[in-house]
Design goal:
Radius of gyration: 22 Å
Number of strands: 2
Oligomer: single chain
CATH architecture of the largest domain: Up-down Bundle
Strand order of the largest sheet: 1-2
CATH topology of the largest domain: Growth Hormone, Chain: A
Order of helices and strands: HHHHHHHHHEHHHHHHHHHHE
Shape: globular
Structural class: mainly alpha
Length: 409
């Protein structure tokens, strides 16, 4: 009798784990490899400006370099989607990983900051080439009932590296000599690429899916429904770009937070986005991707308003954590929704193109944010970002989230 109860309890625990964790083969391989690669990438990338400045790069040089990297990464998003639709989902993952590791080896071997910047440019492009295809593989290797959970798991895997990578870098390279970390990252990327090349199962067979074996066209017409969806997400991206660079300054000058408190706020933010991603699949199953998007996107914007009037650091940190937890849930709902709204043959281009647009919009938002800060007021900046949650939610409420074909030209 006692043995039977233990078996029943064990089965219940296993079922509860399966309700949250997806055991899809492709997802587990992608998740394990992205944790390793992303951890080593984030062990040096946050310290890159310090490393370059020690090598002789000036402030203007750094500003120009990171602007170029920002826009190049947006183009790489779209290129990754195009290649995935043309040659299969694994091709940009494997080729991007191989070329990225070579670029990192080259980066670690030079001591001139200009030459290093060139290799960093190529390494960044090849890394971002791999961003969209894993989402496509996850969408196509899981059933519709499992998809939201799988995307939630993928969001968790993707956020582990940025959380622990900088800590690892601070331990291994306390003097900001990043060569050692760059070599380790190159080895890690090369190793993970071999695993992905040999273990991942291709999910896109153009012949099996009845698609024409011709080169995918770069021009296609989005339906009005997808355009509404894109517009809503663009406004959200713009709102995020408005404030992100000014949160630390506002926290110091107006909420009177210390450097340690600001650092704690950002650490808790990363942790909350990771934690909120895990149950997001169940939340989406309960409320649907559309309702989840409306609520999470609206709250992530609207919380800017009470945040800027926080009477102390505890309230500010708490509100910031809630806002980013909503954003984390919304990210998973977005991935689930866009898969429902796109066809197999054009999904890579649409997702890659949308991601590229969001990166550009985010950067434009940052530039506009600086103008608002200087010409209106810091409070006006956060009011604008907060109020943008209303058009985001309204337009999203008009979107019909279901398979929506795209007319190619």
């Amino acid at each position: 009798m006692e043995h039977g109860r233990k078996v029943v309890n064990a089965l219940r625990q296993a079922r509860s784990v399966r309700n949250v964790i997806s055991l899809d083969r492709n997802l587990l391989i992608l998740g394990a490899t992205v944790v390793v690669s992303s951890t080593f990438w984030n062990s040096w990338y946050p310290f890159l400006p310090i490393y370059l400045s020690k090598m002789g790069a000036g402030a203007k040089d750094l500003g120009l370099l990171f602007s170029i990297l920002f826009f190049a990464s947006s183009l790489a998003h779209f290129a990754g989607g195009m290649l995935a639709d043309r040659f299969g989902r694994k091709f940009p993952i494997v080729s991007g990983g191989a070329l990225s590791s070579l670029s990192l080896f080259a980066t670690a071997s030079v001591s001139d900051w200009k030459l290093l910047s060139i290799f960093i440019f190529f390494g960044t492009c090849f890394s971002f080439l791999q961003m969209t295809p894993p989402q496509l593989i996850i969408a196509e290797s899981t059933s519709e009932s499992e998809r939201a959970k799988a995307f939630g798991n993928w969001a968790v895997y993707s956020k582990i590296g940025p959380l622990i990578g900088p800590i690892l870098g601070g331990i291994l390279a306390p003097e900001y000599d990043l060569r050692y970390l760059l070599f380790l990252n190159a080895i890690a990327v090369a190793s993970m690429t071999v695993i992905r090349a040999t273990c991942l199962r291709e999910t896109f067979d153009r012949k099996a899916n009845g698609a024409k074996r011709e080169r995918p066209k770069t021009r296609f017409t989005l339906s009005g429904n997808l355009l509404l969806f894109l517009y809503s997400c663009i406004v959200l991206s713009f709102a995020g770009g408005l404030t992100w660079a000014f949160v630390p300054i506002f926290s110091t000058d107006f909420i009177h937070m210390s450097t340690a408190q600001i650092g704690m706020m950002f650490s808790i933010t990363s942790l909350m986005m990771l934690i909120s991603s895990m149950p997001s699949g169940k939340i989406i199953e309960a409320f649907g991707p559309k309702r989840t998007l409306i609520i999470s996107y609206f709250l992530s914007c609207a919380i800017n308003i009470p945040w800027m009037y926080s009477p102390n650091s505890i309230i500010a940190i708490s509100l910031n954590a809630i806002s980013n937890a909503c954003l984390g849930i919304g990210e998973v709902a977005y991935q689930t929704a866009i898969v429902k709204m796109t066809s197999l043959e054009t999904r890579g281009r649409v997702m890659g193109g949308f991601d590229a647009i969001f990166v550009v919009t985010y950067s434009v938002g940052s530039a506009v944010g600086g103008w608002v800060w200087e010409n209106a007021s810091p409070y006006a900046l956060f009011w604008v970002a907060g109020l943008l949650g209303m058009p985001v939610a309204f337009v999203m409420s008009l979107v019909r989230i279901e398979n929506d074909e795209i007319q190619e030209k």
